[in-house]
Amino acid sequence: MTSEAWWTTPTAQASMQAIGEAVAREFGEASKEDEAGPLSRGYIGRRLDHATQAVVVVVDPEVVDMLQLTERLSSAPGVGGIRLRVESGAHTVAELLEAQAVLRERAWHPRAAQVPIAFELGADSRFIVTLPQEDEDVARALTARLGDRVRIEWGTARRTPRRAPQEPRSNPLD
Length: 174
Hints:
This protein is of the alpha/beta class. The chain contains five helices and six strands.
């Protein structure tokens, strides 16, 4: 089995689903009334670590007790068939919520409100922002405003939905 195919086994898939359910019980889910949802409670995202064949839950250690969370998630029903690790994010919840507000307000550049944009929070503690290639000036202004809290991707974006996803787009955990 290749180092990147480990998560495709039935046991790994069932364990990842159980981890997702445990994370949802722990942090809740975003809603129209609570758009920041899990992020405001310290949850940043999940990712796969192919080198160690583990699911990594990324949190803000200023908000979440990482040791207790590791114990609770590891002992959740159905999680035992896979490695699980809890890590701190590169940015705090406060920093990410501020970045999310900037993205939603769309005021970092005179044309930001007119440019098609999509964004989502990745488990690397950065918002992945998709913009059209022709709007490099808008992207530069956003990067100047938010620094390494954003990663720009070029492409055709639809307008950002009211609720930005909390999982990386390429994440097979959903």
